[in-house]
Amino acid sequence: MSKQTGSPIEDCRRRIWLVDSKGLIVESRFENLQAFKKPWAHEHEFVKDLPEVVKAIKPTVLIGSSGVGRTFTQEVVETMASLNEKPIILALSNPTSQSECTAEEAYAWSEGRAIFASGSPFDPVEYEGKTLVPGQANNAYIFPGFGLGLIISGAIRVHDDLLLAACE
After folding, report:
1. Total domain count for the chain?
2. 98-141, pLDDT tens digit by residue?
3. Rounded to an integer, what distance in angstroms lies between the CA atom of residue 71 and that of residue 91?
4. Rounded to the nearest 5 degrees, what angle is found at the Cα of 131, between the Cα atoms of 129 and 134?
5. CATH number for 66
């Protein structure tokens, strides 16, 4: 994000909010946070539950990657839909049983407006006479090509710039 926009990394971090198993990553939790979480701690009151975090932060995108299924509840998705014309719901955890929500749930709870992608394949969903096709956004698309490129090039180390180029 910083490289693409030319913005300082600190400005970019201010736009990204993280939630872990204990709640929102905030400065009041700083002493007990793992080192890799500390740069993401915001000055904000602590909020424990995801539905309340969504109401407080008003995100445009939800990215689930915890491996804890069903965390994007009806309340969470409906709140996202009330805040965004096209809420982006990325339920990336695998296997499908651990997905944060299903495509059908995301579409139903957002009145068919969600932009949905998952880490596992979901079948198309019929919603009010329209066929909505969920996207799949997982490592199956990047890692095989990236791995092959590393083997072919004989690279010994993978630097951040290499990963960024592959993602682009």
Report:
1. 3
2. 999 999 999 999 999 999 999 988 999 999 999 999 998 876 66
3. 9
4. 145
5. 3.40.50.720
